[in-house]
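Exercise (ungraded).
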Amino acid sequence: MKNNVKITRIKRSMTQEQLARKVGVTRQTIGLIEKGEYNPTLLLCISIAKALDKTLDELFWEVEDE
Amino acid sequence: MKNNVKITRIKRSMTQEQLARKVGVTRQTIGLIEKGEYNPTLLLCISIAKALDKTLDELFWEVEDE
DNA sequence: TACATATGCAATTTATATATTACATTCATT
DNA sequence: AATGAATGTAATATATAAATTGCATATGTA
């Protein structure tokens, strides 16, 4: 479950902590999602996408394998 | 959490049961997701999208409110 | 009418996403 | 080298996605 969260967050000059707070989850949750060994819920994916000004597809669609 | 699963499934002439089987979940899970009062995981959303030949955005992105 | 198919829905159980707490590591800066 | 900020990671607890079972309802059709 690879995704583009980490690279996009860094481009936005945000820390995991900042993204987590904006999205309303803990830093650890963001870290695990970025690591790709996690299966977040749809609402969380949508929140992350909006926080990073991206769409679901841009962050989570056919990033690799799957 | 509205989405376009139901309308797309019907266009494809599939039953909830058929979609559920193709995706590997139960009919009830599909029913609840279509009803929109459910928060499926990303992997399930991706499976549903592929089963219906759509992308995440087409099924789950800014369908309404949010 | 009677029967089959598709769907809605509710209760309970199970699996897992997420929170919480805590500590280790990396890296930049002083 | 020492300090602090950012991140990795692990154990346990809690919330909730999803499974399971079962029954009700609607609708088409023989």
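Further reading is listed at the end of the chapter. For now, observe: Residues 25-26, 28-29, 32, 38-41, 44 of chain A lie near DNA strand C (CB under 10 Å from a C1'). The interface with chain B takes residues 1, 39-43, 45-46, 49, 55-57, 60-61, 66 of chain A (CB under 8 Å).
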